[in-house]
Amino acid sequence: MLRSIRTSIATVSISGTLPEKLQALKAAGFDGVEIFENDFLYFDGTPGDVRRMCEDLGLAIYLFQPFRDFEGVSAERLARNVERAKRKFELMHELGTDRMLACSNVSPDMIRDDALIVDQLGVLARTAEEAGVIVAYEALAWGRHVFSYKHAWKLVDAVNHPNLGLALDTFQRPTLSIRDSVDEIASIPGERIAFVQIADAPMLAMDVLEWSRHYRCFPGQGAFDVAGFTARVLEAGYKGPLSLEIFNDGFRAAPTAITAADGYRSLRFLEEQTRALIGENAPPELFNPPAPPEHIGFQFLEFAVDDTAREHVAQWLGRLGFRLAGKHRSKDVQLYRHGAGSIVLNAEADSFASAFFQQHGLSLCASAFHVDDAKLAFERAAAYGSKPFSGRVGPNERVVPGVQSPDGSLDYFVDEAPGDPTLWESDFVLTDIDGPYEVGPLSRIDHVCLSLPADALDTWVLFFRSAFGFETEAAVLVPDPYGLVHSRAVRSRDGSVRIALNASMDRYTAVSESLSTYRGSGLNHVAFSTPDNFDAIPRLEADGVRFLRIPRNYYDDLVTRFGLPDEQIDKMREHNILYDRDERGGEFFHAYMEQLDQRFFLKVIERRGGYDGYGAANSGAARGARATAAAGGSGGMRARGA
Amino acid sequence: MLRSIRTSIATVSISGTLPEKLQALKAAGFDGVEIFENDFLYFDGTPGDVRRMCEDLGLAIYLFQPFRDFEGVSAERLARNVERAKRKFELMHELGTDRMLACSNVSPDMIRDDALIVDQLGVLARTAEEAGVIVAYEALAWGRHVFSYKHAWKLVDAVNHPNLGLALDTFQRPTLSIRDSVDEIASIPGERIAFVQIADAPMLAMDVLEWSRHYRCFPGQGAFDVAGFTARVLEAGYKGPLSLEIFNDGFRAAPTAITAADGYRSLRFLEEQTRALIGENAPPELFNPPAPPEHIGFQFLEFAVDDTAREHVAQWLGRLGFRLAGKHRSKDVQLYRHGAGSIVLNAEADSFASAFFQQHGLSLCASAFHVDDAKLAFERAAAYGSKPFSGRVGPNERVVPGVQSPDGSLDYFVDEAPGDPTLWESDFVLTDIDGPYEVGPLSRIDHVCLSLPADALDTWVLFFRSAFGFETEAAVLVPDPYGLVHSRAVRSRDGSVRIALNASMDRYTAVSESLSTYRGSGLNHVAFSTPDNFDAIPRLEADGVRFLRIPRNYYDDLVTRFGLPDEQIDKMREHNILYDRDERGGEFFHAYMEQLDQRFFLKVIERRGGYDGYGAANSGAARGARATAAAGGSGGMRARGA
């Protein structure tokens, strides 16, 4: 069996005490860790205790860090720094690690003299040699004099001592934080790279130190070309661990186990991306899960219901043109179908769905995706650490592979072989009126939008990127009367499945809901697309579907913003249709149905001219209208606790 | 009676729907508002509805904003922009406001030609004249070509039309965000300043647009010299409203009424500061509350207890050398005294304290401050909108003026006139052993530290700055195993009262606690100072006081950090004393007692050589140790829900 790439993470990346961190990191799958000095200092046990704890868990200690401000100093201070280094080397012996990270000096009184620095790094290298350890020298992006990896490499190369190597970090200059080339990394001899640290981050226009200390995230969650960096590192011949070093205020306050699992998943995902980037010369030990499905679509959405909720949803579906198409052979489960999609209502007692209903009330408990090969899609998701799920299966019923989403809801993968019975035929007693279904005004599910607790957004983005192989769209900030909403969409490569993820900053509503009745994420809305909103909406209204009233002022402003013809504005006003236009002239029409439940609703949308977004610019108007409606009209107030 | 300065705020500054915002702003005390266009667009009612709502409330609409990208455009676009302006002017008539904010153009294709811009602003001014409105032109700090108030003023001056004035904003260049002089403002004719917007912000090294859009705060909460700006504006002869325009992600998610009240309080505080800055020539209508007490000290801390909690706390106090000094004449309240301070334990049924105990358990329900003149101190706090409190007073007992803190706990003000009975003599039956008390190892209360929900920090800072006239210290970020802690201290001018405010980012602990058992802020610790920690701690230990064990690793590291003598380190290790040193050589020794309650504890500190901080650098060590202790030892894990 191939030895795989060694995975590592700095203990500073997650929350908890040192023992909590180590246990969570082991459980997540990491091979080893960097011990961040403060985690050790705040731990009430000896270095030997830490060593034994790691040995018992089977975790290697790949690095001790950070050691600061050694080089470019006066002779007197050098002597003190050597003493300081010796003490840390002793500590490292007791910890059982042979590698220390030394950061380039950030002190304002550093002496900026490369020859002197080479001399002093030489002293450090020889001191390390005596102690039998290796020092990895890193150019901090905010270093006083040495702030690029190229400069650091020049110095390390000049010292030319086996006990001093180069430490590389994606957050170094001039690599990713400065968007400069990383190509020169590939020409550094691999054995001179003593350690490699990896972090992603969103692109932010801020001081690099602040950015680095507070806004890093796991690979796949940010905007850095982390795979490009890693590819060059491997091409250089580096054989050591890939180690995450993430400073993130949110991660430090998030549940330890979840962040640890995200970290491990992100490293594996990085390996897959790096493999793709390098191509056929990629090291075979890079993680190699099954490729994501080439085609994927929504097969059905499944709601957990009780009898009352079922009746309520069924009425809604009826007005939208859905028809009861079948009943499950062995469970209290109904199938509603429509040309635009299928909805399953699950009221089975003592099942996953009933547990979900108990916890969340009427809610989306599962999403099923139609794929080329359900087994492969499942295997990919499972390879990325998603928990497999299997429910009870009756005789001759289909075993549908599924995994858990981060909130515990399920994702099923379904395929159909030509000639075989379909899932519906296997598992359901179909009604006489089963198919073919008219398309009617709605043609398909365009996207699903989920509401998340504020700190869960990164977890979900990574879940869809890795387990599903989805792409991410740019993050947007959406105004809401009760707090801004961070929104980011993920989508399959061909755009056939889109999922918008909304995380509200409203601590009072979102958190209290997530801690009490709501408990985690949940459906915000399902958007059905239509080829012609101006045809579809009046037809739906005639069938009794009610739409959210949009404030008239919105339409008066539309006139000044887009110069649309009056008659079009009049129609949109009449039917409460919102409008957006992108830079290339693509147009988006969308209307919100009245709430189906206090938490979610349905939407009808039309895309024209390649419009590719979600009408975020109008989200404020819809959210304002919804808040007004919830308060019982324009003069109303929503009661809201402090 | 003097007419006061008109107070205003942009509706974007707080959360809620437009009706919610307006009602909260009126209740907070504002004279009028700026209607932020999106708030209007998302409101389902006519402009006339908004006008009537404001009239019914007695709120003026001082401004409609923003109007964008008018000037520096092609002739064709100018014509469209004039149409756009006319429509907005019509809307303003219906709203009943005569003033509109026009922001300098931010479009990349703006034509950077001052002569053209002056021409086009002239067109805007004449269009405004026809409509009977005034346009206030503002240089956005991120404007394409016009991004300083000096440039904007040059253009407005050149247009020289009464319907075009200058809008000033503290977030403009080159005023506060760029830390440049604001002195030239005073030389602009006051009648040409059409509007003044005020915001404060912390100093952040980030893109000015991001900074301005997300991190503004109310005057007194940030680091800008807002009073200096306001003084120049008033010296210029500006007579219009002072209007807050705050873009803050936290405020947009915070409870509407609290933010509105903070806003009003901040404007009044700004007026007081501005008055002080201008001196005797200050406009008499500027807010003029009683000055803060010249001398202030902790008189007593009062805990809400039941019988069990009282016994528990009394034991603790006994070990620290406190003695039962008296019982209240009419209530179930006990007084414990010590040279270092007084503690009141309140178990009175059906009282404020019992309500507090019911809600929070054992908790700090009141703090009493010794001041020169209690009536004046109370009047100042009340003038800043703090709710007065008066409890039951028995015959011949003292009426102690008090106000509510933001969390509902009380602040009392106490003074003593020579010859009159003291508060203790009036209200308590004193024991034989009443005073004089030996100082013992503890000399005084150095500071009190409160734990706050994350979004309450700004509210508390402003409360102490305005109601108490306290100064603020720099904000620091403190690591904790379960989330970073934003910490900021306030203090009386002479440092005799210091209160550290800690807001944790740990959503899971802090928020769930604040929403359930904990409900808001609460005492984190009380720090007693001692002239000699190395004398005090062993004596306290001998009396049975137990101190939190600090990890040994902390002391090993101290050696390398500060080069302290071995014997000193040994003593500190033995007695679990932490150490910090400031840049000027001032030293800080502090030790944490074991938790008195699951939420709070006591601390013993010693300051040497003018050390003025709180040992934040060690907070991580103590928090780590506490988490370890809570988990039951070094190998333990704290159970923690997701």
From TrEMBL, chains A, B:
Lyase recorded as keyword: yes
Catalytic activity: 3-dehydroshikimate = 3,4-dihydroxybenzoate + H2O
Any Pfam family matching the protein: Glyoxalase_5
Keywords attached to this entry: Dioxygenase, Lyase, Metal-binding, Oxidoreductase, Pyruvate
VOC domain segment(s): 297-416, 444-594
Membrane spanning residue stretches: none
Cofactor(s) the record lists: a divalent metal cation
Residues noted as binding a divalent metal cation in the record, renumbered to the chain: E138, D169, Q197, E245
Keyword DNA-binding: no
GO MF terms held by the record: 3-dehydroshikimate dehydratase activity; dioxygenase activity; metal ion binding
Metabolic or biological pathway: Aromatic compound metabolism; 3,4-dihydroxybenzoate biosynthesis
EC number: 4.2.1.118
GO BP, sorted A to Z: 3,4-dihydroxybenzoate biosynthetic process
Enzyme class: lyase
UniProt record similarity statement: Belongs to the bacterial two-domain DSD family.
Function summary: Catalyzes the conversion of 3-dehydroshikimate to protocatechuate (3,4-dihydroxybenzoate), a common intermediate of quinate and shikimate degradation pathways.
Protein name stated in the entry: 3-dehydroshikimate dehydratase
Species this protein is from: Candidatus Paraburkholderia kirkii UZHbot1
